[in-house]
Write a structure and sequence with these properties.
It is a single chain. This protein has four domains: 3-89, Rossmann fold (3-Layer(aba) Sandwich); 102-187, Beta Barrel (Elongation Factor Tu (Ef-tu), domain 3), CATH 2.40.30.10; 288-373, Alpha-Beta Plaits (2-Layer Sandwich), CATH 3.30.70.240; 385-472 and 483-501, OB fold (Dihydrolipoamide Acetyltransferase, E2P) (Beta Barrel), CATH 2.40.50. It is α+β, with helices and mostly antiparallel strands and 502 residues long. The radius of gyration is 28 Å and the shape is globular. Strand 9 (152-156) and strand 10 (159-163) form a beta hairpin. The longest helix is centred in the N-terminal third of the chain and has 14 residues, at 33-46. Strands 14, 15, 16, 17, 18, 24, 26, 28, 29, 30 and 31 form an eleven-stranded mixed beta sheet that branches. The chain has an eight-stranded antiparallel beta sheet with strand order 8-7-13-4-5-12-9-10, with no helix packed on it. Strands 19, 20, 21, 22 and 23 form a five-stranded antiparallel beta sheet that branches.
């Protein structure tokens, strides 16, 4: 099963919720339902499911064809068997419409006009517009706040319909409470009893969002100041409850923490499309300490499908990043399925390397596992960077000489500046190159015409590849039009002095 299946099932089992297993795409020629059943049952056992949960019903379906059936030798005609199974095994909402109000906030939305909107199910009682209530939280027993319900919306089809009153069992959206959080309970004033809930997992990865101060700053973006950056990041907190934003010692940088590189890269890409211009640092993991003061780090479970001929390389690379091989088995089509337990920092910068090693044929999925004792130092990128020595516009002659030193990320006619990274060095150390250097023209006639200079096509990297490539002394400059990697210290002399100090 995929990591997302494991994650959702783990949360459901922890809450002791009844389970219905639906195996979809059963009409595919390559369908293997018997094997999938065994894999799902193994997953149940791995997650310490009890006997009742292990007896969960199985339904086979083809969502595309709109059919479901309970036995493999049956031919379904509609989805009625799935609906009947849900009605039989999933209990209806329990509650008392005449009891005191209780409503657990399950998710958060945001609107510029009304502010935060809380969405959840009314567990007991009734909810009315302009009703006074108490806001409490199961994990924060000392937090109690008197609030007033603004507007109430119910969902009808795809539309939100404003209502004056709603009762037990209804899923509603409410506005008028600015400090609402997921997990809060809206209670009647005479009975402030919080509903228990599964606490939201804490972030595991952080990076700094910095105001862009490169020589090309402000030329491509619409929102470039620290005020714009701060407002946008804190506005994201209104809807993304797993994100954390902290001010730093300087007003030009903000520490942003999330659930992984993908989580933060989605935010970066969204801001980029909105017209923001900024820079981000290399991702770093968030460490913790146990009661004995021992350092703990986040661990991930990595599920990898890779052609058999590349499995040795993948195992070797992940082992060097402190990965531990948990299982290895054959998959269809000459593929091997690997399961690794690996520190989250061991996966930083690896995905691009993985695609190269497997020639684009490998698939890797990861999910957070737990915090475990620190595994020791990890050696990341073995190659240095090609750094621009002189600001200007790149030319073919300068790039032709530079491409002998490594792999280029840019072509001719692009603006560059001193300290900008324009390629990957073939050696372990950084190399400074002058890609703005033009060929000297003389009035001396050549005995033979010069051959046309041919450049190797540059390697154009995506946002995720750029984030993977970054070193600790580098930043990624993000604009609506460009992605540029640069050194934190642009001046070459100052950079060398800082390197000697370190």
């Amino acid at each position: 099963p995929m990591p997302q299946t494991r994650f959702v099932l783990q949360k459901a089992l922890a809450l002791n919720l009844p389970i219905v297993v639906c195996i979809n795409k059963i009409d595919r020629p390559e369908a293997r339902p018997s094997e999938v059943i065994d894999e799902v049952l193994e997953l149940f056992m791995d997650l310490d499911a009890n006997d009742e949960q292990l007896d969960s019903p199985f339904v086979y379906a083809s969502a595309k064809a709109g059919v479901a059936f309970l036995e493999l030798n049956e031919n379904g005609t509609n989805l009625q068997p799935l609906f009947d199974t849900i009605l039989e095994h999933i209990p209806g909402p329990e509650g008392d419409p005449d009891a005191s109000l209780q409503m657990l906030i399950s998710t958060i939305d945001y609107n510029e006009y009304v502010g935060r909107i809380g969405i959840g199910k009314i567990s007991n009682g009734k909810l009315k517009v302009n009703q006074d209530a108490i806001l409490v939280n199961h994990h924060e027993p000392d937090r109690k706040m008197k609030v007033k319900i603004g507007k109430i919306y119910e969902i009808e089809g795809l539309k939100k319909v404003e209502v004056q009153e709603s009762s037990m069992g209804s899923i509603v959206s409410i506005s008028g409470i600015p400090d609402l959080k997921i997990g809060d309970t809206i209670c009647a004033i005479d009975n402030p009893d919080a509903i228990p809930f599964q606490k939201i997992s804490e972030p595991t990865i952080s990076m700094n969002f910095v105001v862009n101060d490169s020589p090309l700053a402000g030329t491509e973006g619409k929102f470039v100041t620290s005020r714009h950056l701060r407002e946008r990041l804190y506005r994201e907190l209104q809807t993304d409850v797993s994100l954390r934003v902290e001010d730093t010692d300087t007003t030009e940088a903000f520490k942003v923490s999330g659930r992984g590189e993908l989580h933060l890269s989605v935010l970066i890409e969204t801001m980029r499309r909105e017209g923001f211009e900024f820079a981000v640092s290399k991702a770093e993991v968030i460490y913790k300490t146990d009661e004995n003061g021992k350092k703990l780090e986040p661990m991930e479970i990595a599920y990898i499908d890779v052609p058999e001929e590349f499995s040795g390389t993948v195992i070797q690379k992940l082992a060097s990043r402190k990965g531990e091989l948990k299982s290895m088995g054959a998959a269809r089509g000459g593929f091997v399925r690997l399961e690794f337990s690996i520190p989250a920092r061991g996966l930083i910068g690896y995905r691009g390397e993985f695609l190269t090693d497997t020639k684009g044929n490998g698939i890797i999925n990861t999910a957070f596992d737990c915090y475990a004792p620190y595994k020791g130092d990890i050696e990341y990128r073995h190659t240095g960077s090609l750094i621009v020595f002189e600001s200007g516009v790149s030319v073919t002659y300068g790039l032709f000489n530079a491409q002998e030193r490594g792999v280029l990320f840019i072509g001719a006619g692009e603006k560059v500046y001193s300290g900008m990274v324009i390629g990957q060095s073939g050696k372990s150390e950084d190399i400074e190159v002058n890609v703005c250097k033009k060929k000297q023209l003389t009035n001396t006639r050549s005995s033979s015409s010069d051959e046309a200079l041919r450049l190797t096509p540059p390697k154009i990297m995506s946002l995720e590849q750029c984030l993977d490539f970054l070193e600790t002394d580098e930043l990624l400059e993000v604009t609506p039009k460009s992605l540029r990697i640069r050194k934190k210290i642009l001046d070459p002399l100052a950079r060398k002095r800082a390197g000697r100090k370190n």
